[in-house]
């Protein structure tokens, strides 16, 4: 199988530049080409301007600013010939068949014999794109439909033509999987493929029914949010995000490509209100606003929502008062049959969407799993359409459709009293279009903890953690608390794991498949203890964390942290005490305790001091190193990628990064086993800290920030406590300070801050609003 070692992207718009940036994230040099511009020195300006925007964009398309060096700008007229040295060329130009075909004719003249060409189109069939091209060109042509933004959206829909070679297909799927980290879904060559075919129908239906049933924008988004396992943007928030002006464009494209009998076409409308909003520039977040906008005329920014009947804006209702939302925890069927207007709306939209999705298999995909995976990865649904039908019950769903004199999709009839998914002998199965059950597909080398859990029982389990045998002498410690927050149960399980592994196993991996590795300590529990005056319990929690993390660090076997999503506060500290990290590229790690009025007290200060002061490449002596740690912790810096985590030393330079989240556990297990031969625990660290001089310097720096309005008065109080820890307190540069000494400084500072009402206010703010309070 060929490797993609160099790539090119033609088209430097938002999507094209985003794809180029993601090639760079994967370490692949990429040529970014666009139309030549007139004027001296301006030939490459479209691509050059796109690269400049990458460096300023938020969210950032690049995982590290230095990756921009892997992107070379150019123009089609002068530089198209350079693609002969590229393994893969992605076309991302305007969605017009004639223009694309003209470009392909030019590409065919200069491409290398093994250069693979793909289009990012989502509306034009593959067979039309390659019409008139040579057999060799067609053998090396596919559609690779990235979702925007390419760095963050995992879905990649791939379509191969009847002439596409197996080698070209395998080369691209391997690159997209392992190098780019994509979840690959094989689609048929049909309009909109899978995710957008269903997703845009869902959005259209939700909008039209909200108008018809007099459901507010806020109510619709609350209904199609948490109760459905859909992101909090819901439907109208999502349309604002993608742009209202895209809706009629997609509609026209779908109407032109689909038969008149298709539900998307037969139900399609362009509401006058929405068309007026578009005409007036209310196209969503990229315009003046959309269904939501921020009113900035007063002293404060006020979020407003449009009235779908009148077009007037009003202050957005934060928590719509619909009775059905109160019963949503009782199950999906209870939610959609509750009997109020919210549940009626939910049933209408959901039933239409699920029926539409079920009617499209096998037209758009070989199986139901591809459909569910596309909606999970492309629209961030927690459950795919067929999983949602299972939650309702296929028989119940069919009976209700029948009672309403609506057609029941053939696939729903075929599954009958069974379900679309089931577990048999520890193996997850899905229902095939032929009526048989098949194993859920897994790419070679993928190991999922969910599969292991389905086929086995934990070695040990408590309320917040479980211990699993993942094979070859490796155990996996899984956090299972809410948002994987660290509590006493997790600490107890870490100590149990240390005892079990050293008796019968080789290594330990810390890993879970939650959205976040760990959001940190359980703040709610800490605040509860404060309210009851349980200071001894808080002290015990701090001491227990220090003892546990130290035991993990010096365990007589390798410990690897396999992280993804947020690893904050205490979650970051547990990572800092492992031998190695295998991080998903989208790991966001940091010590954020100052945001809740505290300082790291489970060894975070200690470990960061050790890393910065032990850097042999660091110029400037211990003061520079301490200043770096002070800045990182004092400003609650969070690495916005695993690559940035290395720069901030939350990860070591030789820690590893996995692009595809599905491969994280397998990679972490492999890393842990590689450390087993000859393993020796690290030697205990001793640090020479400068004491009072460093403390004064840090305090002066913070005073300047307060005067400049960059820090609050309480930030200064917290920083003073932090400066005592990082300077070593009453010590001298000639002394050697042990880890236990720094633990004591952390503990003292933490408990002192914990007694402050200002800290309590910060903790309450995080719990209630999710936002830090700068008091």
CATH topology of the largest domain: N-(1-d-carboxylethyl)-l-norvaline Dehydrogenase, domain 2
Per DSSP E runs of 2 or more residues, the count of β-strands stands at 23
Query: Mean pLDDT, nearest integer?
Result: 95
Count of the separate structural domains: 4
Structural class: alpha/beta
Strand content bin: 5-15%
Tally of DSSP helical segments: 33
Helix content: 40-55%
CATH architecture of the largest domain: Orthogonal Bundle
What's the N-to-C terminus distance? 58 Å
Q: Going across the biggest sheet, name each strand in turn.
A: 3-2-1-4-5-6-7-8
Uncertain regions: pLDDT < 50 for 5+ in a row?
Answer: none
The general outline is globular
Question: For this structure, what is the CATH class of the largest domain?
Answer: Mainly Alpha
Radius of gyration: 28 Å
Task: For this entry, give a set of tags.
eight-stranded mixed beta sheet, alpha/beta, N-(1-d-carboxylethyl)-l-norvaline Dehydrogenase, domain 2, 775 residues, 45% helix, 33 helices, Rossmann fold
Summary, kept brief:
This protein is α/β, with parallel strands linked by helices and 775 residues long.
What does this protein look like?
With 775 residues, the chain is an alpha/beta fold. It folds into 4 domains: 180 residues, Rossmann fold; 229 residues, N-(1-d-carboxylethyl)-l-norvaline Dehydrogenase, domain 2 (Orthogonal Bundle); 189 residues, 2-enoyl-CoA Hydratase, Chain A, domain 1, CATH 3.90.226.10; 78 residues, no CATH class. The chain contains 33 helices and 23 strands. The strands form 5 sheets. The protein has an 8-stranded mixed beta sheet. A 7-stranded mixed beta sheet has the order 15-16-17-18-19-20-21. It has a 3-stranded antiparallel beta sheet with strand order 9-10-11. Helix 26 runs antiparallel to helix 27 and helix 31 packs antiparallel against helix 32. The radius of gyration is 28 Å and the shape is globular.
């Amino acid at each position: 199988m060929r490797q993609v070692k160099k790539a090119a992207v033609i088209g430097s718009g938002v999507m094209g530049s985003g794809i180029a940036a993601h090639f760079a994230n994967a370490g692949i040099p990429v040529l970014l080409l666009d139309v030549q511009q007139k004027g001296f020195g301006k030939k490459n300006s479209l691509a050059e301007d796109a690269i400049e925007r990458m460096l300023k964009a938020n969210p950032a398309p690049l995982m590290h600013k230095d990756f921009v060096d892997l992107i070379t700008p150019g123009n089609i007229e002068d530089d198209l010939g350079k693609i002969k040295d590229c393994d893969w060329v992605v076309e991302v130009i305007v969605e017009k068949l004639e223009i694309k075909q003209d470009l392909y004719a030019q590409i065919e003249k200069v491409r290398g014999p093994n250069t693979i060409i793909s289009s990012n189109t989502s509306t034009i069939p593959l067979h039309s794109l390659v019409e008139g091209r040579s057999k060799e060109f067609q053998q090396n042509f596919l559609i690779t439909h990235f979702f925007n933004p390419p760095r963050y959206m995992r879905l990649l829909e791939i379509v191969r033509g009847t002439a596409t070679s197996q080698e070209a297909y395998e080369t691209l799927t391997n690159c997209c999987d392992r190098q780019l980290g994509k979840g690959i879904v094989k689609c048929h060559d049909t309009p909109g493929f899978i995710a957008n075919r269903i997703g845009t129908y869902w959005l259209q239906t939700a909008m039209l029914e909200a108008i018809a049933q007099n459901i507010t924008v806020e109510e619709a988004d609350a209904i199609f949010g948490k109760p459905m396992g859909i992101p909090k943007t819901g439907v109208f928030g999502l349309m604002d995000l993608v742009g209202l002006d895209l809706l009629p464009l997609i509609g026209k494209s779908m109407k032109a490509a689909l038969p008149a009998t298709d539900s998307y076409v037969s139900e399609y409308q362009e509401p006058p209100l929405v068309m007026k909003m578009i005409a007036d520039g209310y196209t969503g977040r990229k315009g003046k606003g959309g269904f939501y906008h921020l009113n900035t005329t007063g002293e404060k920014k006020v979020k407003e929502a449009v009235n779908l009947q009148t077009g007037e804006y009003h202050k957005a209702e934060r928590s719509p008062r619909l009775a059905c939302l109160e019963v949503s925890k009782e199950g999906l069927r209870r939610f959609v049959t509750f009997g109020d207007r919210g549940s009626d709306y939910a049933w209408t939209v959901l039933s239409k969407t699920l029926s539409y999705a079920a009617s499209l298999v096998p037209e758009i995909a070989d199986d139901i799993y591809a459909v569910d995976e596309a909606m999970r990865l492309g629209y961030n649904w927690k459950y795919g359409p067929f999983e949602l039908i299972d939650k309702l019950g296929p028989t119940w769903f069919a009976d209700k459709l029948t009672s309403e004199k609506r057609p029941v999709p053939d696939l729903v009839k075929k599954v009958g009293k069974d379900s679309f998914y089931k577990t048999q002998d520890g193996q997850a199965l899905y229902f095939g279009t032929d009526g048989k059950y098949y194993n859920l597909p897994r790419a070679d080398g993928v190991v999922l903890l969910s599969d292991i859990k389905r086929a086995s029982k934990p070695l040990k389990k408590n309320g917040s953690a479980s211990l699993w045998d993942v094979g070859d002498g490796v155990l996996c410690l899984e956090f299972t608390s809410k948002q994987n927050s660290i509590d006493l149960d997790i600490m107890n399980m870490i100590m149990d794991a240390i005892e079990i592994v050293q008796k019968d196993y080789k290594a330990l991996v810390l890993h879970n498949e939650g959205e976040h590795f760990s959001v940190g300590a359980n703040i709610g529990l800490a605040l509860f203890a404060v309210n009851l005056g349980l200071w001894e319990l808080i002290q015990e929690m701090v001491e227990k964390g220090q003892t546990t993390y130290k035991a993990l660090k010096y365990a007589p076997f390798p410990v690897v942290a396999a992280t993804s999503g947020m690893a904050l506060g205490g979650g970051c500290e547990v990572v800092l005490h492992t031998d190695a990290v295998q991080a998903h590229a989208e790991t966001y790690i940091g010590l954020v305790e100052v945001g809740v009025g505290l300082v790291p007290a489970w060894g975070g200060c200690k470990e960061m001091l050790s890393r910065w002061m032990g850097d042999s490449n660091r110029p400037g002596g211990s003061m520079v190193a301490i200043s770096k740690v002070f800045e990182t912790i004092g400003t609650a810096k969070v690495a916005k990628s695993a690559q940035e985590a290395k720069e901030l030393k939350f990860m070591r330079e030789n820690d590893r990064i996995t692009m595809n989240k599905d491969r994280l556990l397998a990679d972490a297990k492999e890393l842990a086993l590689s450390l087993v031969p000859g393993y020796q625990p690290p030697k205990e660290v001793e640090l020479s800290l400068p004491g009072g001089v460093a403390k004064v310097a840090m305090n002066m720096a913070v005073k300047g920030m307060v005067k400049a309005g960059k820090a609050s008065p309480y930030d200064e109080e917290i920083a003073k406590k932090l400066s005592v820890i990082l300077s070593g307190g009453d010590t001298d540069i000639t002394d050697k300070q042990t880890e236990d000494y720094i633990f004591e400084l952390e503990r003292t500072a933490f408990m002192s801050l914990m007694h402050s009402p200002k800290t309590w206010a910060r903790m309450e703010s995080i719990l209630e609003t999710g936002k830090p309070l700068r008091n």
